[in-house]
Specification:
By secondary structure, the chain is α+β, with helices and mostly antiparallel strands. The chain contains six helices and three strands. It is about 50% helix and about 15% strand. The longest helix is centred in the first third of the chain and has 19 residues. It is globular.
Length: about 140
Amino acid sequence: MFGVSQRLMTMLNSLPKEGEYIFGRMKTGNAVTYFSLLRKRVSKKLGNPRILSIHLHTFWHWIATMEYHKTKDILRVMRRLGHRNIQNTLIYTQLIHFESDEYHSAVADTVDEVKKLIEGGFEYVCTYENQLLFRKRR
């Protein structure tokens, strides 16, 4: 299981639903076929052929890279991916330097302000003196 950001949940919830599952009850092979069809459709619609180079396996690399960037703990990433050998984890984790660790910060007092911040990509940090603090990477 992986944690999912509020922004991703919003995008997933905006997908058309035919049942309680996001992609329906399909076998793995069918999911790959469905993903391929969606990828082609999106690539054509956006006029971006680079989308065709994204595979389901690409997300595994992305998850490993983002987890490492967040925690800077390669052993945690190894456990999260279920690997026994650190060498396997290093294959999936791109040890890249992100441009900035700086954040924009914001404070919310009302539910409407919280909603606007979350929709704007801010993430909740903590509550201080009855005010909700949020941040978003620059």
